[in-house]
Amino acid sequence: MTDVEVETELANSGARPVAEGLFTWPDTPRLIATSCVACATTTFPKQASCPRCTGTDMREVTLATRGRLWTWTIQGFEPKPPYAGPIPFEPYGVGYVELAADAPGASSVLVESRLSESSPDRLAIGAEMELQIVPFRRDDDGTEVVTFSFRPAEAAGE
Amino acid sequence: MDVAIVGVGIHPFGRHPGVSGLEQGAFAVREALADAGIGWTDVQCAFGGSASSGNADSLVSNLGLTGVPFVNVYNGCATGGSALAMADRAIRSGDYDVTLALGFDKHSRGAFNANPESAGIGRWYGETGMMLTTQFFGMKIQRYLHDYGLPSEILAKVAAKAFRNGSLNPNAWRRKPLSEEEILSAPMLSNPLTQFMFCNPGEGAVALILCRADQAHRFSGRPVKLRSVSFKTRRFGSFEVFSPWLSPERVPGPTVEAAAAAFEAAGIGPEDMDVAQIQDTESGAEIMHMAETGLCKDGDQGALLGSGATEIGGRMPINTDGGCLANGEPIGASGLRQVYENVLQLRGDAGDRQVPGNPKAAFTHVYGAPGLSACTVMTV
Ligand SMILES: [Zn+2]
């Protein structure tokens, strides 16, 4: 099954996002941000005020699904609670990806995200990455919980 | 009004089963009083704190109920630095002649697990495994090495130096030297940082007695002038821990402003320093802070470490007591440990790790979550 097919199946299976308001779901997943009307600063996730100019007029915007990797690391040991990831633990990548806002004038934003790639040889600063929604864990009642992640863009659709 | 440090005391760092953080704090205070040749009744005002080991002001029931005004400081990684800044101001203001600054802590193995809600972030951030200081340090140095073309091997050089210096320090926690090969081949915790490139939560306490410099001759300890203490927090655009997002705008971190303010107030610059203690919660921090404090230029760290310039016998000795890497990090005490070390170095009392050539000027720097920094300049 391709990644796109996995995503479609997740969307149809009643899976829930790890938190409300982080990304649009289940149709056309996009990260949800806010942009300051006064100074154009974009924040992720949504904020009611702007930490740059202290303004309180924020408009909701979505973010591009592709962007460049600004920095990265690999989480090599299992974090303590409240971490609630897949069991058994597998190392995972974490990085900041610079994403444009889908709104004229709004600044771009570097979003911290899990990365689907955990091999240092396949991660590089400046590499193009692509958003994907991935299965993360199951609730006690069996509901699939999904979260956002980024993968190297060349792997898209494989 | 000039300020002098006339007494220093330390409770050894490491692990001390059965000894509470408060007890370690009281031990350090008594050591500092003995060093200054005074009693607790001579202390006119006190400032102290810990991150997780109790209220410093409760120590009066141990040290003596003298009526002294005792202010509790609770300021994260800047707890010790903030206590020192206030003890310094209390003298400069003319209100007091003799003050105490104290920091102590006792953290269990693997402390420092962060709670997203208390940092104002959604629980999802912790649930999905992004709320780790170790990750932040890995990502920050990864970008720094990339920006300045530095090899990741210099991270091992920093750690090897720390453990070598720690082996010469009787108060250090980790006193076994490790080779660069052992450090590089240790488990990778957060790429490019391995296990031995990180410090651990620990225990310890440090106390300092300050006085008006014009009265320093009345005390038995050889006085060291506290030329300046500065304390700053982050601005918008600084890359700090626990940030679900960053602006594409990058501004210098709080260290840059704190160091510049400390040097300006002291009237001497980084080039005048004979020894420096800078925050090394992991190897990458020491490398980045060398440049942020002004001790070197961005990108020069590879050559400086390669030539041994930051070793005890080098041109710019850094973290001569083994730093956080060899001493561990009891949060409240960590910043004052650096001041303690510089006082020993400037007095010529640092024993096997003494910087040669009678150092005359010294610098300290702490940095911590969620983006703050405190610096001092001292001279003899
Ligand atoms: Zn704004």
Blueprint of the fold:
The complex is a heterodimer of chains A (158) and B (380).
Chain A: H1 3-12, E1 16-17, E2 32-36, E3 42-43, E4 58-62, E5 66-75, E6 92-99, E7 109-115, E8 128-138, E9 144-152
Parallel strand pairs in A: 1-9, 7-9
Antiparallel strand pairs in A: 2-3, 2-4, 5-6, 5-8, 6-7, 8-9
Chain B: E1 3-14, H1 21-36, E2 45-49, H2 60-63, E3 70-72, H3 79-92, E4 98-106, H4 123-127, H5 133-148, H6 154-166, H7 180-184, E5 188-190, E6 193-194, E7 203-212, E8 224-233, E9 245-246, H8 254-266, E10 275-278, H9 283-292, H10 301-306, H11 323-327, H12 331-347, E11 361-368, E12 372-379
Parallel strand pairs in B: 2-3, 2-4, 10-11
Antiparallel strand pairs in B: 1-7, 1-8, 4-7, 5-6, 8-12, 11-12
Helix pairs in contact in B: 3-12, 6-9
Zinc ion binds at residues 36, 38-39, 41, 50, 52-53, 55 of chain A.
What does this structure look like?
The complex is a heterodimer of chains A (158) and B (380). Chain A is built from one helix and nine strands; from the N terminus they run αβββββββββ. Chain A has 158 residues and is mainly β. Chain A has one domain. In chain A, a hairpin with a 5-residue loop joins strand 2 and strand 3. The longest helix of chain A has 10 residues. The radius of gyration of chain A is 16 Å and the shape is globular. The termini of chain A are close together. In chain B, 33% of the residues lie in helices and 20% in strands. The radius of gyration of chain B is 19 Å and the shape is globular. Chain B contains twelve helices and twelve strands. In chain B, the strands form two sheets. A nine-stranded mixed β-sheet of chain B has the order 3-2-4-7-1-8-12-11-10, sandwiched between helices. With 380 residues, chain B is an alpha/beta fold. The interface between A and B is large, with 42 and 35 residues. The complex binds zinc ion. The site of zinc ion (ZN) has 8 residues of chain A, from loops.
